[in-house]
Design brief:
By secondary structure, this protein is of the alpha/beta class. The protein has one domain: Rossmann fold. The strands form three sheets. The chain has a seven-stranded parallel β-sheet with strand order 3-2-1-4-5-6-10, sandwiched between helices. It has a two-stranded parallel sheet with strand order 7-9. Strands 8-11 form a two-stranded antiparallel ribbon. Strand 4, helix 2 and strand 5 form a beta-alpha-beta unit. Helix 2 packs parallel to helix 3, helix 4 crosses helix 6 and helix 6 packs across helix 10. The two termini are about 30 Å apart.
Length: about 325
């Protein structure tokens, strides 16, 4: 297959490109940055008439991951860039597909599990999950994330691509041992004795092991009956306190200093980020994948954490 990945130079795009390339597929990453890679990297400007659009014509699959990094303060400038980078990229990809003589058979579009409401009780699947934004007491920054997610998916739904199946990937955080990823960051806290409970620890963490993320993407490519929103998350999300306790135990750390809410708020300001990334409760489950017969290799966090730590150590020994 020829697989085109707009915005594919980040962590998730790289692990997908790596997996596709390893299996012998033709991989084309569209990127604003010039990066060295074993696959082709083509300049991407996010404009429908850009030279990159020719890569779409004749491709089998498009996986659009383009969008500005959300690990920042949600000031007016950053909010505008976050929103425009996502919505405009969806429209650009949609127009390129619409103009193609030989359009791709499937378009997998990044979305986010953050679209669901902050909750502690019932898990959110695609059929019964509650889209957030109206929760009492939710910070404005959390409502902004919902606005971005819904605008992202609305732009996908509005695209005129009758010959191309469309899937919105409502992804939880993807855990891989690569440097700079979310797992690397969490493990660095544990290694320094700081990997304790965040806030009151009740907030759920939804996650997915990189192996299952790649397998789920392949599954969605191959199963033509799957379209619309699909949750890419392991079936067993955990409260933050338990999630971090399991990670500490897998590493062999006896203690981890907790961080209260005010400490997290202060740290977020100093690190130029938002506390939503650690305090919002995301209890998301993969209803459609499970119903369709997809079997997770890592459905539970203890086994996933042990595998990720083993591979994290192997990567550091090899470098």
């Amino acid at each position: 297959m020829k697989i085109v990945i707009p915005g594919g130079s980040g962590q998730v795009g790289t692990l997908l490109a790596r997996a596709f390339h390893r299996e012998g597929h033709e991989v084309v990453v569209l990127s604003r940055a010039a990066v060295e890679a074993p696959w082709r990297v083509v300049a991407w400007d996010g404009r429908p008439a850009g030279a990159w659009a020719g890569e779409i014509d004749g491709a089998d699959v498009v996986v659009n991951l383009a969008g500005r990094n959300v690990n920042c303060r949600y000031n007016a400038h950053n909010r505008d860039e976050i929103m425009r980078s996502r919505v405009d990229s969806v429209r650009a990809v949609g127009e390129a597909i619409a103009r193609a003589v030989d359009p791709p058979r499937v378009w997998l579009q990044a979305s986010t599990a953050t679209i669901y409401a902050h909750c502690f009780d019932a898990p959110n699947d695609e059929a019964t999950g509650i889209v957030g934004g109206g929760e009492a007491g939710a910070p404005d920054s959390w409502r902004f994330s919902i606005e971005v997610a819904t605008a992202w998916e609305r732009a996908l739904a509005e695209a005129e691509t009758p010959r191309t199946r469309r899937v919105a990937l409502r992804s939880a955080v993807t855990m891989s041992p690569d440097r700079g990823g979310i797992f690397d960051t969490l493990l660095s806290l544990v290694r320094r004795g700081l990997g304790g409970t965040a806030g009151d620890g009740r907030q759920y963490i939804s996650w997915i092991h990189e192996t299952d993320f790649v397998r789920a993407v392949y599954w969605l490519i191959e199963h033509g009956e799957m379209d619309g929103a699909v949750n890419l998350a392991a079936p067993q999300p955990l409260p933050n306190a338990e999630f971090m306790r399991v990670l500490r135990r897998a590493w062999g750390a006896r203690v981890g200093l907790p961080a209260s809410r005010w400490m997290l708020e202060l740290g977020a300001v100093l690190m130029r980020t938002e506390t939503e990334l650690v305090l919002k409760s995301r209890r998301v489950v993969p209803g459609r994948l499970l119903e369709a017969g997809f079997a997770f290799e890592y459905p539970a966090w203890p086994q996933a954490a042990e595998d990720l730590i083993r591979r994290w150590r192997e990567l550091r020994r090899a470098s």
